[in-house]
Design brief:
Layout (H helix, E strand, L loop, with lengths): L6 H13 L1 H13 L8 H13 L5 E4 L2 H5 L15 E7 L8 E6 L19 E3 L2 E3 L3 H20 L8 E6 L7 H8 L7 E3 L6 E6 L1 E10 L3 E2 L3 H4 L3 H12 L2 H6 L17 E8 L5 E2 L2 E10 L5 H19 L7 E3 L4 E2 L2 E2 L4 H14 L5 E5 L5 H7 L4 E3 L4 E2 L7 E3 H19 L7
Parallel strand pairs: 3-6, 3-7, 7-18, 8-17
Antiparallel strand pairs: 1-2, 2-6, 4-5, 5-20, 8-16, 9-13, 9-14, 9-15, 10-12, 11-13, 19-20
Helix pairs in contact: 1-5, 1-13, 2-3, 2-5, 5-13, 8-10, 11-13
Bound molecules: zinc ion (ZN).
The site of zinc ion has 5 residues, from helix 5.
Length: 430
């Protein structure tokens, strides 16, 4: 496959990515240094803003408000907006007549507990053996750096495009998706969206939905010695409820074939218990235990049906345990994301594959992603095809997360070539 770009222009673009690569890694380090946890993204967003300003990419801060998000009522939501949170947007204007492109990435990162088990502090980035380490390095500040430096390379190479490129650094992908939803709510439709998540080597054609589920279990507190007669241990009950609920994973995966492009062999649904808290004293039968889990939902499966099935299993387990006076309470404290299936968009996909093949020997493998992403907002609520494409990362959400710098260089080059090819080069000004 060919990008259709003039070879001389292509070489010029690739050379500019190489020239700026040290600066790009420095920028990535500066992003990682800012611990952009949920509700605390501002520091990293300001690093982004300053970089876009320096490159004349017309940065602006987009406030994420309830009013804005409510304008897309079809997108399910459970959490409130964090006061004062904002996306940072950039823009390279086209001369007209070309296809437009959004390059999107999320600035937020997940917590880095237990930080004492990291080789170095999680927000103190360093490079070792060609990998850059730190929380958020792979997921997905490297991708954001790739987006920005791909556009910077186009500008440095003096390439004027016909279509617009919009850069989006969004908040809260890991917990609510409010940042990407705000971008969709604000309009400004594009012809394609590329999200540079660390999907290295893969081209996800569908992804699961994700729900966060909280369960509050109330037992009967008592003196530990009296437990057998009077108490009911909330922590032990919580374990039993979880044991029952997680069996839904296999039941849902068994339905995969009902939801094309999934097949019976693809089992993308996972259930993970993420937090558990209960009890206040070693010698007391605990009165309350709260746990939260994350579950995948098949692309196409109804979230409302999935919620009902979960609530039914919790109720059945509680009944078996005799928790009838104080039945467990189920809540939905964050992610409530529908799955996403890429609609036919052969031009977009082929154009991206061509740019990839121009910069990498490894073919892209189509998959159904067992993880969620912001692709769903663009695909489901803005009817804009969205694809994930990004660098190689290890241990994302884990200890000693890192990203491979040579893959970052390659992906930056591929995004630059893809953008030039997709948006079209304005020959008049070249
Ligand atoms: Zn991510």
């Amino acid at each position: 496959m060919s990008t259709g770009l003039d070879q001389e222009i292509e070489s010029r673009i690739l050379a500019e990515v190489d020239k700026a690569f040290d600066a790009q890694v420095e920028f990535l380090s500066n992003l990682v240094r800012e611990p952009s946890l949920w509700g605390k993204e501002q520091g990293a967003q300001e690093v982004m803003y300053a970089n876009l300003a320096e490159a004349n990419l017309n940065p602006m801060r987009q406030q994420v408000t309830e009013e804005l998000l409510n304008s897309v009522p079809e997108a399910p939501r459970t959490a409130a907006v964090v006061e004062g949170s904002y996306n940072v947007l950039g823009h390279k204007a086209g001369s007209g007549g070309g296809r437009s492109l959004v390059l999107n990435g999320h600035i937020d990162v997940v917590p880095a507990e237990t930080s004492d088990r990291w080789t170095r502090a999680p927000f103190d980035p360093y490079v070792k053996d060609g990998w850059l380490y730190g929380r958020g390095s792979g997921d997905m500040k490297a991708g954001l750096a790739a987006n920005v430096y791909a556009v910077r390379a186009l500008n440095k190479a003096g390439v004027s495009l016909q279509g617009d490129i919009r850069l989006q650094s969004v908040i809260e992908e890991e917990c609510t998706g409010h940042g990407a939803l705000a971008c969709v709510a604000a309009g400004g439709k594009a012809d394609a969206v590329l999200i540079s998540e660390p999907a290295h080597g893969y081209l996800p054609l569908a992804q699961v939905g994700i729900m966060w589920v909280g369960v509050q279990v109330d037992g009967i507190p008592a003196h530990a010695g009296a437990m057998l007669e009077t108490g009911h241990n909330a922590i032990e009950a919580a374990y039993k409820i979880w044991d029952r609920v997680k069996l839904l994973k296999d039941r849902w995966n068994a339905r995969s074939a009902e939801y094309p492009p999934l097949t019976a062999e693809i089992n993308p649904v996972n259930f993970v218990i993420g937090t558990i808290n209960g009890g206040d004293w070693p010698s007391s039968v605990p009165s309350r235990c709260n746990f939260e889990f994350r579950c995948g939902v098949l692309p196409g499966q109804s979230l409302e049906d999935a919620k009902l099935e979960i609530e039914r299993e919790v109720a059945k387990a509680a009944e078996e345990l005799g928790l009838t006076d104080t039945p467990p309470v189920v809540s939905y404290p964050g992610l409530m994301a529908e799955g996403y299936v890429l609609q036919p968009c052969d031009d977009f996909r082929d154009c991206l594959i061509a740019a990839h093949e121009q910069t990498s020997e490894i073919p892209l493998q189509p998959i159904v992603s067992p993880a969620g992403s912001d692709c769903r907002f663009f695909g489901n609520y803005a009817k804009t095809p969205a694809l994930m494409y990004g660098p190689k990362a290890q241990r994302i959400h884990g200890i000693d997360e890192c990203v491979e710098l040579e893959s970052l260089r390659q992906v930056t080059k591929a995004i630059a070539l893809f953008a030039a090819s997709w948006c079209g080069i304005d020959k008049g000004e070249d």
